[in-house]
Amino acid sequence: MKRVFLFVLTNLAVLLVLGVVVQLLGVGQAAPGQYGALLTMAAVFGMGGAFISLAISKWTAKRAMGVQVITEPRSDAEQWLVNAVARHAQAAGIGMPEVGVFDSPQPNAFATGARKNSALVAVSTGLLRGMKREEVDAVLGHEVAHIANGDMVTLTLIQGVLNTFVIFLSRVVGSIIDKAVFKSERDHGPGYFLTVIALQILFGILASIVVMWFSRQREFRADEGGARMAGRSNMIAALERLKAGSQEPLPDQFNAFGISGGTKGFSRLFMSHPPLDERIAALQQLQA
Question: Of the listed 78, 98, 134, 143, which one is catalytic?
Fold first, then answer.
């Protein structure tokens, strides 16, 4: 489940660092009449930060999760895993992803990568041990559907646009507060710098809520894709199996592209996945 959360967290970190850099360089100040230039700068840094996160997503995933990529299958289980991913990739019309396994007792899986034809699908040892093969097959179909639907790129574009407005609005509002509260006349004072950093963190958190909402919607689509490729009953059985077991989220950046996750209440705003009950109900309604 950790694929999107790690992406968002990395993105916020990149965004914050870029924000500090532009402040130190003095190019992030909202001078009167220069909002067009400020918006351009915000777009360059905002979109750039999002695509940097996407470009390194596979590299980050392999190291953060300890993914062992299967180059030469060493067992019947690994051969079956590679063959299943290949079958789903062919059905989805995408290039063969890299296939890997990471050591975790929790049943989980994720997909990531900057391009449809150069992606990574990884599953946990706990998922391979705790699920029947037809259920694992449905999980793999779900992950391949994420790749085929272009979810990583879509969320990156959404994040990039939101980053742009986070950078832009934090500086515009910071300039207003600086003049109203700190009484700065011409040059921005220390109050402006501190206000912008605080606003960037606040607006970044609000932006992450929007990204997570989009992630939850795309999770339903990936479930439908897994159902088409491996059968609805198998997809439902896999989700039921996840519901019955204990859940531990993936690292934040990969949360949105994982298989499990979801909660209720206020914390749901920050979750990349809908509750499993809702996902199961959606598939049952689709089946009906």
Answer: 143
Nearest CA to 112 out of 125, 123, 127 is that of 123
pLDDT of residue 253: 47
> What's the first-to-final CA gap in the chain, in angstroms?
28
CA 101 to CA 80: how far, in whole Å? 13
Report which of 171, 141, 110, 114 is spatially closest to residue 238, judged by C-alpha positions. 141
212 residue type, one letter: M
Lowest mean pLDDT of 44-58, 101-115, 187-201, name the range: 187-201
Model confidence at 239: pLDDT above 70: yes
Please enumerate in sequence order all residues whose Cβ is within 8 A of that of 34, keeping only pairs 6 or more positions apart, or say none.
none
Sorted by where each begins, the domain ranges of the chain are 3-61+154-218+244-287, 65-151
Sequence-separated (6 or more) residues with CB below 8 Å from residue 171 = 28, 29, 30, 38, 42, 196
Give start and end residues of each alpha helix (H) in 182-273.
190-230, 232-244
Region 147-156: mean pLDDT is: 92
Q: In sequence order, what are the beta bridge partners of 112?
A: 120
Distances (CA, A) of 234 to 116, 142, 229, 273: 25, 11, 10, 19
Say whether 143 is catalytic: yes
Selecting from 3.40.720.10, 3.30.2010.10, 3.40.640.10, 3.30.460.80, what CATH number does the domain 65-151 have?
3.30.2010.10
Percentage of the chain with pLDDT > 70?
77
Segment 51-94, tens digit of pLDDT: 888 888 899 889 888 999 999 999 999 999 999 999 999 999 99
